[in-house]
């Protein structure tokens, strides 16, 4: 099951890969431009005869650029002072970028693995519980289907009460925050719209004192027969 947290981590990894490719594109363009200009001594373009075609020259230059960012090597190397200076600057830049890239990839992969381990642990505990309690297969399948399609594939919205740091806000800021959060929803009712127009402070007090948030996933009951509504 691909949850939003896992999808976010995967997209983050893809973004980092695209970012590295874009950086290497500009580095390789600079490397090829430097090698194609007349200067002190032969250039790497002349020395290695890469101008067979534009595509071959670009891919060779890109290959060289990628080797500066990774622990790899190739036969292309600087052949004059300007190219050597460019290569040294690229290596210093690559040290910073590649270390940050690796740490970000590692963090994203760790997050994916941690989330996957939590899900697998929950599945094992659930199977053990159903087996020990001898739950019928029909009920087991219904519960499993609900968890797979609602609990594990959905993400509950984050509410104010879930963020403990917001509890430290002064009362006036809490009131303004709840007013902005809840007023747009409440004024959809004509009666409350009239109240908000005629009594702004009363509407703010209503949002601050009388409104709470909850999230109901698909197939979950919002109101249960015999239970008092809040």
Automatic annotation (TrEMBL):
<protein>
    <recommendedName>
        <fullName>Ionotropic glutamate receptor C-terminal domain-containing protein</fullName>
    </recommendedName>
</protein>
<keyword id="KW-0812">Transmembrane</keyword>
<keyword id="KW-1133">Transmembrane helix</keyword>
<feature type="transmembrane region" description="Helical">
    <location>
        <begin position="12"/>
        <end position="34"/>
    </location>
</feature>
<dbReference type="GO" id="GO:0015276">
    <property type="term" value="F:ligand-gated monoatomic ion channel activity"/>
</dbReference>
<keyword id="KW-0472">Membrane</keyword>
<feature type="domain" description="Ionotropic glutamate receptor C-terminal">
    <location>
        <begin position="13"/>
        <end position="115"/>
    </location>
</feature>
<dbReference type="Pfam" id="PF00060">
    <property type="entry name" value="Lig_chan"/>
</dbReference>
<dbReference type="GO" id="GO:0042391">
    <property type="term" value="P:regulation of membrane potential"/>
</dbReference>
<dbReference type="GO" id="GO:0005249">
    <property type="term" value="F:voltage-gated potassium channel activity"/>
</dbReference>
<dbReference type="InterPro" id="IPR001320">
    <property type="entry name" value="Iontro_rcpt_C"/>
</dbReference>
<feature type="transmembrane region" description="Helical">
    <location>
        <begin position="85"/>
        <end position="107"/>
    </location>
</feature>
<dbReference type="InterPro" id="IPR050818">
    <property type="entry name" value="KCNH_animal-type"/>
</dbReference>
<dbReference type="GO" id="GO:0005886">
    <property type="term" value="C:plasma membrane"/>
</dbReference>
